[in-house]
Amino acid sequence: MKSQHLAGILMGTAVIVFSAVVLVLVSNSPVYPEPLHYTYNVVNVYPHDETAFTQGLIFEDSIIYESTGRYGQSTLRSVELETGNIIQLHVLPDQFFGEGITIFDDKIIQLTWQSEKGFVYDKNSFDLLQEFTYPTEGWGITHDGSRLIMSDGTATLYFLDPETFQKIGQVEVYDEEPVEFLNELEYIHGEVYANIWKEEKIAIINPQTGRVTGWIDLEGINEAEKQNSSNVLNGIAYDAEEDRLFVTGKMWSQLFEISLVLVE
Q: Which pLDDT belongs to residue 195?
């Protein structure tokens, strides 16, 4: 009898048939769908301080909260969305380079770049309540309601206890390969949205697996303000009450409200 050979792959399982012998090889690697791809429509445009080296962005109670960077120029501020006017301003000491921020239990948590130090402020008064340390660079930070989620410019997201600021877990972010330069973060509908430093795109990440589930292509959103390589896209804020998504960049004069368009 002539021998036959059939090979098939279904959901990570390979089935190989040699005559009457059937071998089932089960892969340990889960099978994930390809990431979705989005482009955007600009819904509204708001003024933004073009001197602000944006490192962190949050929207809460109709107010934009922003962290800005650069030594000697770093700030924490609250801003009117419609006008871009600064409501409240806290200036960091010159030795600190401000980075990402998040709001947790009416407290603002702010990272710094290479000082391995973070600050906790009262959301309303900006009074400094606490300082904490971490062993990496600080880039972006958000939270999922129970854990802080932090980036350090690598392909790793770190999970921190919001009370002790100790690391309680981490995950590597990847598509076909690790996705490095994770920057400013926002937690939206169970997923982490992350700016990729110096790229005009945002990764949508499953924080449990690290898998990129989507890419937002923002190419061309602000061609007029690309004066130098520092003026990059950086800043994601989400209005949960009205389901609005905002983006801006370092030293941009505009903040954009966008809607996502699925690329078929």
A: 97
* Residue 166: domain span: 32-262
Q: Which residue has the higher pLDDT, 133 or 30?
A: 133
* One domain, residues 125 and 24: no
Distances (CA, A) of 185 to 31, 46, 193: 26, 21, 6
The count of C-alpha atoms lying within 13 angstroms of the C-alpha of 82, restricted to the half-sphere facing its C-beta, is: 1
Would you say residue 9 has pLDDT above 50? no
> Are 25 and 40 in the same domain?
no
Using an 8 Å Cβ cutoff, are 220 and 232 in contact?
Answer: no
CATH number of the domain enclosing 86: 2.120.10.30
| 39 lies in the same domain as 75 | yes
Number of domains in the chain: 2
Asked if residue 186 and residue 95 are part of one domain, the reply reads yes
**Are residue 175 and residue 81 in the same domain, yes or no?**
yes
Can you spell out the DSSP letters for the chain? Answer: ----EEEEEETTEEEEEETTEEEEEE-SSPP-PPPEEEEEEEEEEEE--TT--EEEEEEETTEEEEEE-STTT-EEEEEETTT--EEEEEEPPTT--EEEEEEETTEEEEEESSS-EEEEEETTT--EEEEEE-SS----EEE-SSSEEEE-SSSEEEEE-TTT--EEEEEE-BSSSB---EEEEEEETTEEEEEETTSSEEEEE-TTT-BEEEEEE-TTTTGGG-SSTT--EEEEEEETTTTEEEEEETT-SEEEEEEEEE--
